[in-house]
Amino acid sequence: MRPLTLWRYEASRVGWTAALGPPLAIALGTAAALVNPLAQDTARILLGGLEMVIPLAAAVACASIVGHDPAVELQLSAPTQYRSTVLRRVTVTLGWTAAVAAATAVVLIATGWWERWPANHGPFVGQLTWIAPTLGLSGLGFAAGCLFRSPAAAGALVTTVWAIQQFFGDAAQRSRPGRLLYLFATTRGSEPRDWTANRLTLAGAGAGLIVLALIVLGRKERLIGEEDE
Amino acid sequence: MRIEISGLTKTYKGGVAALDGLDLVVPTGMFGLLGANGAGKTTLMRILAGIMLPSGGHVTVGGHDLGTTTGRTAVQRDLGYLPQDLGLYPDLTARQFLDYMALLKGIDDRKVRRRRIGEMLEVVALTAHADRRLRGFSGGMRQRVGIAQALLADPQLLIVDEPTAGLDPEERIRFRTLLSQFAGSRTVLLSTHIVDDIAQTCREVAVLAKGRLIFRGTVAELTRRAEGQVWSVVTDGPAPADGTVVSALPAEHGMRYRVVAPTAPGPQARPLEPGLEDGYLAVTAR
Amino acid sequence: MIAFAASLRYEFRMQVRKRSVWIVPALTLVLFLLIGGSLLRDLFDPDEVPPEAKTAVTALAVQVYALLTIGFGCLLADRLVRDDRLRVAAILDATPARETARLLGKYLGAAAATAVPILVVYLGFTVAYAIHSHHPSAIGWAAAALGLVFLPGLLFVAAFALAVPLIMPAPLFRVLFVGFWLWANLVAPEQIPTIAKTVLHPLGGYPLTALLGFHGIDGRDSWAGPVPGATLNFLRPHPTPATAWLSIGVLLVLAAAALTSAHLGKRHAD
Fold first, then answer.
1. Could you report the per-residue pLDDT of B182-217, keeping only the tens digit for each?
2. Contacts of A148 in chain C (CB under 8 A)
3. Do A and B count as touching (3 or more CB pairs closer than 8 A)?
4. Residue pLDDT, tens place only, C158-206
5. Are residues B207 and B242 part of one domain?
6. Structural domain total, chain C
7. Are C139 and C127 in contact (CB under 8 A)?
């Protein structure tokens, strides 16, 4: 196990978006719920903050991890593999996101708001509400970042995927593959019986994309070429 | 740590051959690598630092095969690298940056790290600025941080790529002295296009041009390559067209040109004793 | 003038050559088609296509613009801070070229380049539809939609995409921008306070309604004007040509304000 100090340094490398994104997401979601005049929508919006905004913030942060490291050449010459370094950064980003999301979920459960949304799936399994889309979208963002070496392109891609599923939620869920990859199945899902398969598919796809990205990162030379910036 | 390179090639996308069948042996001590921009020096440095894979050929460093992952990692454990384009993290202090680099080099023991960082900051005369953020550092100070991180793990192989570019004369001299003192029983590969840095520190030198080795020998041998080819010409007319003009200084009656040419570039040319730069030009002109 | 033209030309060239400027819209299109493509496919389906060419191309404009502008804003997010990162800022600042000229050139050049793929998609589908349906007037209506909806909206987004990352990290801007886009365009005004269907509507609700006569594909939607039960109705005057031009003007003024802030902010930082 590497020293904690190394993890602290990697946390300092992931930037303000990773640090501020999740709390800001919760703040915005809570604000939206508070100003909503329709009481029955409040629970949906609160869970929606966890299911929609938290994954977006984490994914954009993960999309920005590879691409703008000023000391990348020194990193690549060190005996610590760069993919280990990057994986530490992803872990810090997702770990912090998970901490914020979990704390929010605990508050929602304790205040009774969690169970007011009929499709909450319970306090334990229900945590897949945010875990699955966070892993899925962050895996996509991270993989895109490694492939494009461009935080702008990778960030644009994950925000667009997120937006397509927001704007065209019904169309996105017309087919079974679409339903299995739908990010917002808890709060906007059309087929409740697909929820478990959906959550597992998203989480699995995300993990798979992260593994794929780490394989791509093994080709060090790509990282010191000119960025597509 | 002996470096043995045979048949090394590196071709980039688009068919650009940065290295073209390079054969070279680098012994222990200070070794200079000269060449124009685009000669392949930085590509060679990056291959030796384990950052790039060659397209062909074979490289061993201290007996480790750079063609394997274990070989590259083994070399990197004993490597200090100062790249041409040194990037730092501007929000970290010098001490924090060195601490981070020490961790990446595998120095997990906090006491050992602290001691080494303190020593390196002393060596590069940055102790007084250790707790300042790097964004406030001058170019020379940044280079000193660069050399400090390269020396942190007491490497047996030090690769420095254009280390004195942009430094003032005093800092250049300090740098060169530091490298020479460090060399001893270690291998220091100094890649530069500033000939004077090689002249002041290295006994042996290699010259690259278009990815190939065009000279390998001692500094004295390289200098001798220009024997009988260095001329002084004073004229108030145009610069001599034959050969390479090394310098042009105002003289009493016109300009005094130092020219490297196989034959006298004019009736008024006087022969001069060659220097290392002249030898370099004589070799690259062929 | 020369500095502006040079800046515009080279910023355009640098941006239009970037692979990501083309890959992101292309992937967006593929994803959109994969989930059913909505109007994109309906344009060529005789049972689904709107009867009027004006309605068809205007609806297409809304969908293309709503979707592809997200990538547009994200791709532009770091164009202004890029000069510092690439260490060319000092060289550029040392030239006699005026900063405002360079900023305008960068703004228009980078925005135009990033908009090229969006225009290619929109005009490509429009031309295909015009040929397939024998409605050449579609091209004219598409030009109108470009000028009245795309142009002010993209200029608005581009200005903020350049300016805001001066005060926050570009990735954070991208998160906030897509949230803003959703809030400003998709959220129902009676649900939570939003600028949707107001004169600030980035999607161009007022020009769509009052200048293009667009009321949704089936003619029953409202894109501008007061909404019963909504807050901010004072920003929702009755849609008329005058209020439509007002809305366009407001977006352009806000864009100018964002750019001015960026210019002043950079000067203050230097």
1. 888 899 999 987 888 898 889 899 999 999 999 999
2. 19-20, 23
3. yes
4. 999 999 999 999 999 999 999 999 999 988 898 888 999 999 999 999 9
5. no
6. 1
7. yes
Task: Report d(CA C226, CA C238) in Å as an integer.
Answer: 7
ipTM over 0.85: yes
Question: Which residue in A3, A5, A71 is closest to B88 by CB distance?
Answer: A71
> How many other CB atoms are found less than 10 A from the CB of residue B18?
24
The two most distant CA atoms of chain B are separated, in Å, by 70
Chain A residues within 8 A of B92 when measuring between CB atoms: 12
* Shortest CA gap C180–chain A (Å): 11
The pLDDT, as a whole number, for residue B286 is 66
Is C170 within 8 Å of A151 when comparing Cβ atoms? yes
Residue A59 has pLDDT above 70, yes or no: yes
Structure pTM? 0.88
**Alpha-carbon distance A171 to A181, whole Å?**
12
- End-to-end alpha carbon distance in chain A: 36
Do B30 and B73 belong to one domain?
yes
Contact B216, B208 (CB under 8 A): no
* B269: containing domain: 225-285
> Torsions phi, psi of C224, nearest 5?
-160, 155
DSSP B168: -
Q: pLDDT tens across C32-87, in order?
A: 888 766 667 788 888 888 888 999 999 999 999 999 999 999 999 988 877 776 76
- Among candidate residues B222, B246, B273, the one where a domain is terminated: B222
Q: Are residues B264 and B211 in the same domain?
A: no
Structural domains of chain A, count: 1
